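ok so heres the complex, four chains, lmk if somethin looks off
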Amino acid sequence: MKETTRQKLIDATFEEVFSHGYQGAALVDILRNAGVHKGSMYHHFSSKKEMALAAIQEKISTRNFEKYSKILQLSSGYLETLLAAFKDTTQRDFKRGCPIANIVQEMSNLDEDFNKTMKLIYEELRRYIKDILDKAIEVKEMRACDTKKLALFITAALEGAILSVKASGNPQEYVDSVEILEDYLRGFIRN
Amino acid sequence: MKETTRQKLIDATFEEVFSHGYQGAALVDILRNAGVHKGSMYHHFSSKKEMALAAIQEKISTRNFEKYSKILQLSSGYLETLLAAFKDTTQRDFKRGCPIANIVQEMSNLDEDFNKTMKLIYEELRRYIKDILDKAIEVKEMRACDTKKLALFITAALEGAILSVKASGNPQEYVDSVEILEDYLRGFIRN
DNA sequence: TATATACTTGACTATTTGGTCTAATTCCAT
DNA sequence: ATGGAATTAGACCAAATAGTCAAGTATATA
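and the predicted structre for the whole thing:
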């Protein structure tokens, strides 16, 4: 129970920032959605920024962990499972896009603290993908390659695909882009 | 001379929005940088939003036209010139990223007018790339393929690559991603 | 030159913003 | 139970926000 007020704030802040961006996120709206009064908030956090950074970090790390860490614990089928994860659109929020990309775009060039935080989060995401690729190579599902670079490219292609849909409103475009990415990656499969 | 006030506003607005986003762009700063008073601005534009949309549309359309339309006017070497344009980092502002991506991320899910405008601009960019690919196929530099889909993928990969750099601060990551994209596209070259 | 139209000036307004402060309440160990 | 600390409540504040307006000046055309 001790965590509820803080957690309610973290949850509401993430939602509000994901929807409206950091600069567009109004404290009053966060507080209203969280059902928490201003004084309580400033007891738990020293500023809007600190609260937002905490929300971003905690929520996104959790998401990425849930999505990718279990793939790493497999003993085979790494690449197939990774491709399936990319193709799975049920978890994607195409209207709002990718929270990582959103905040990087908005804040990385404006605030050093956001810059540092987002850099770490983006690295973490790429690390998951690199580690999965390394596993796939280890078990000889893939031929050896520069997995750091490939993970970078995969991440970029996925972020770009999500952006396309946010621009066009057409989810099929994500599917189409991922299909091309898949074809490319299947070229690394060992026969 | 008749256009100077309006043009000064368009230029300053684009810069401010590119740097701080639409919501973060303060009218006072735009006016200060443009050297224009508020009343003049509201003579030329009915609102901050209308001015920003005009600035975005005019500046980005011009940029894309300058970058891609001359490639279309070539008579050969379409793919090579396109790849060279992708690899050219001298025009890229990695700190601020891509203005199209920035505004799509920030505004497409928040405002219908921004959504419509950015959808058109994004389509325009993809159209240029598709048309260049079609030309390359026409002159038999490339084998036939679904150029609409390929243009979508290329755009996504490029936008994602720019985002990577904005997140990491390392321009080499753009080069690395584009290198992989180039390898992939070279697979379409006709021997 | 007269006059109407286009444009500029800058003070003013209403609202929203993040943040502060003090008092009240809840919680918990003794 | 009681004293002290943690937490919550919500009124309050200064700054910043986009937008308004009446009055002025330049410009063009008759």
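quick notes: Chain A has a mean pLDDT of 96. thats all i got rn
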